[in-house]
């Protein structure tokens, strides 16, 4: 086996990516094993068998929630009585602060996503696929549209693909750029031309999604794994994980912040935060690690002593956070914790769709309190108020997971760094700083 073949088996998502060249075209992608999974499917694998293989592989959603992909697909009606029109949608919005892994895949290996969309569409019996892409990813859109055109010319998109009797079309849709579109039903509303508000569930999209038809929404990295599972098997995929991780496959991990070499790397899922930080060259000279977010802005802070925890869904959950997107954001010892939280919460408040009161009004109020604490003008009771917000804006009390995600870094910061919040309480006898409802609205 050549070195190239070995790399394809250990780094399936990135083996065809090179920083010194343009993405592979159709012929180049095929030369390194591309479209092998699709060819196997078209040779006679039933859609339900594709679903079964993905389920057996223990592929969990790489967009943040970590829901088992094969299980998600199994909720789609199949068989003769199933609705004739279904959709497969790729969530390529990637608005999570500190996350840039999907951009790498789309810009540098667009045919991989195209193949994944076709195979995933076949698995659920979809006739149309959409890649919902954030509008700022201009280069990714250009590369994806070129790859789709090449796949269409080769007969892998269109009518009666490979003589299978199955028709499938694929489109790139660029969105207006809203964080809430990371929530799958808000994404579907936006794709339909509506305001990007989340929908009530049930019904779930697998039963009634895009234009009321059965729809599956999966993340870019998730879908890119699918053709490799079909090409090499579920056992191979499960064997890629590290240690005792129950999750299958590799994971795109990354680091941003005051490190020597920020970037993204494909590693066995279950690799530790310390391994990832070492790949980034460690902290820049003169800086020490204070805390880190394991998977984007909407995850709980962890401490340096958590660096040896395996970066998989279960282990990070037990440590008190979420794997999320798997891209670490490091907070150094010279950074202002309160300033960091203000920055994060301003983002979350701005990106609220405004649909429910706790999120619409609670997030700006959180910002106002944090700004007061940051400037040393906090009042006694402010910390307790923030703690109550982390409960009042939690799961089950808001329409979607946007506000709970905003509370994750806040609740963990209070838990680990309470003295820094206490230092922001103004001294007794100083004049009131005028916090009120009008100030909340201004935030």
TrEMBL record:
Its EC number is 7.1.1.-. InterPro entries: NADH-UbQ_OxRdtase_51kDa_CS, NADH-UbQ_OxRdtase_suF, Nuo51_FMN-bd, Nuo51_FMN-bd_sf, Nuop51_4Fe4S-bd, Nuop51_4Fe4S-bd_sf, Soluble_ligand-bd. One of its GO terms (molecular function) is NADH dehydrogenase (quinone) (non-electrogenic) activity. Its cofactor is FMN; [4Fe-4S] cluster. Gene3D superfamilies: 3.10.20.600, 6.10.250.1450, NADH-ubiquinone oxidoreductase 51kDa subunit (3.40.50.11540), NADH-ubiquinone oxidoreductase 51kDa subunit, iron-sulphur binding domain (1.20.1440.230). Pfam families: Complex1_51K, NADH_4Fe-4S, SLBB. Keywords: 4Fe-4S, Flavoprotein, FMN, Iron, Iron-sulfur, Metal-binding, NAD, Oxidoreductase, Quinone, Translocase. The keyword Iron-sulfur applies. It is an enzyme of class 7 (translocase). Residues 338-383 form the NADH-ubiquinone oxidoreductase 51kDa subunit iron-sulphur binding domain. It catalyses: a quinone + NADH + 5 H(+)(in) = a quinol + NAD(+) + 4 H(+)(out). Belongs to the complex I 51 kDa subunit family. NDH-1 shuttles electrons from NADH, via FMN and iron-sulfur (Fe-S) centers, to quinones in the respiratory chain. This is NADH-quinone oxidoreductase subunit F. The gene is nuoF.
């Amino acid at each position: 086996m050549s070195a190239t073949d070995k790399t394809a088996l250990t780094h399936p998502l990135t083996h065809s990516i090179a920083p010194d060249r343009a993405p592979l075209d159709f012929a180049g992608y095929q030369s390194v094993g591309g479209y092998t999974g699709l060819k196997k499917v078209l040779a006679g694998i039933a859609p339900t068998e594709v679903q079964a293989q993905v389920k057996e592989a223990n592929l969990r959603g790489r967009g943040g929630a970590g829901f088992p992909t094969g299980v998600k697909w199994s909720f789609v009606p199949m068989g003769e009585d199933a609705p004739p029109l279904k959709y497969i949608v790729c969530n390529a919005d990637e608005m999570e602060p500190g996350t840039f892994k999907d951009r790498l895949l789309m810009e540098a290996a667009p045919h991989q996503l195209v193949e994944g969309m076709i195979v995933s569409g076949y698995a659920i019996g979809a006739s149309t696929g959409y890649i919902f892409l954030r509008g700022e990813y201009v280069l990714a859109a250009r590369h994806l549209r070129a790859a789709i055109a090449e796949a269409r010319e080769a007969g892998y998109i269109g009518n009666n693909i490979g003589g299978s009797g199955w028709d499938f079309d694929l489109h790139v849709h660029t969105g207006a750029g809203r964080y809430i579109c990371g929530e799958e039903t808000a994404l579907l509303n936006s794709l339909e031309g509506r305001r990007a508000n989340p929908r009530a569930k049930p019904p779930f999209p697998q039963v009634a999604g895009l234009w009321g038809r059965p729809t599956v929404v999966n993340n870019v990295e998730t879908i890119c794994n699918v053709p490799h599972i079909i090409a090499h098997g579920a056992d191979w995929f499960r064997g890629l994980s590290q240690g005792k991780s129950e999750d299958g496959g590799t994971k795109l991990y990354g680091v941003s912040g005051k490190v020597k070499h920020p970037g993204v790397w494909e590693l066995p899922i279950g690799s530790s935060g310390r391994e990832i930080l070492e790949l980034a060259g460690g902290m820049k000279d003169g800086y020490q690690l204070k805390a880190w977010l394991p998977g984007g802005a909407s995850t709980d802070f962890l401490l340096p002593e958590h660096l040896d925890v395996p970066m998989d869904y279960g282990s990070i959950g037990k440590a008190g956070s979420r794997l999320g997107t798997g891209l670490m954001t490091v907070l150094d010892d010279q950074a202002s914790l309160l300033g960091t939280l203000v920055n994060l919460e301003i983002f979350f408040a701005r990106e609220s769709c405004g649909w429910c009161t706790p999120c619409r009004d609670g997030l700006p109020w959180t910002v106002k309190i944090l700004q007061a604490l940051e400037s040393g003008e906090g009042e006694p009771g402010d910390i307790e108020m923030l703690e109550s917000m982390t409960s009042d804006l939690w799961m089950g009390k808001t329409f979607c997971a946007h506000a709970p995600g905003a509370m994750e870094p806040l609740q963990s910061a209070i838990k680990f760094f309470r003295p820094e919040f206490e230092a922001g309480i103004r001294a007794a006898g100083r004049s009131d700083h005028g916090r009120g409802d009008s100030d909340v609205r201004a935030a």
